[in-house]
């Protein structure tokens, strides 16, 4: 059957119908904001070509606004990536500081032990 009749049966046995599909919103520049039905297994299983637009194509103003929204989305994604990188660097720095503190504590404990041994030996002498 074809997608125009509302369902598709692939070689995997997967079948999409209006009842099993998911309502989605396009975020592509050319179709920004348009609603469509698509396979509920999109990006998780065998590819299913079922797809049906539920509304009319985006108007000219919508297409113009889509570019602005896409630019803002790209900016927010880059800011998020930068924040993740800063978080990773801060976490790494904190881990290094913790490790250095543990080393310093170990050195203090060893120095204290050496000092006790030295005092004990100097008292005996």
TrEMBL record:
Superkingdom, taxonomy of origin: Eukaryota
Keywords: Metal-binding, Zinc, Zinc-finger
Database matches in InterPro entries: Znf_GRF
UniProt domain GRF-type: residue ranges: 16-57
Keyword Metal-binding: yes
Database matches in Pfam families: Zn_ribbon_GRF
Keyword DNA damage: no
GO molecular function: zinc ion binding
Name the UniProt record assigns to this protein: GRF-type domain-containing protein
């Amino acid at each position: 059957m074809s997608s125009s009749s509302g369902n598709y049966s692939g070689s995997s046995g997967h079948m999409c119908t209006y009842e099993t599909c998911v309502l989605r919103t396009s975020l592509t520049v050319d179709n920004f904001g348009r609603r469509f039905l698509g396979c509920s297994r999109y990006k998780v299983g065998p590819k299913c070509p079922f797809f049906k637009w539920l509304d009319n194509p985006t108007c000219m103003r919508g297409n113009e606004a889509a570019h602005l929204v896409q630019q803002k989305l790209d900016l927010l994604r880059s800011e998020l990536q930068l924040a993740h990188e800063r978080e990773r660097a801060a976490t790494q720095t904190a881990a290094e500081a913790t490790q250095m503190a543990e080393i310093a504590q170990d050195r203090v404990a060893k120095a204290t032990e050496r000092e006790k041994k030295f005092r004990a030996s100097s008292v005996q002498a």
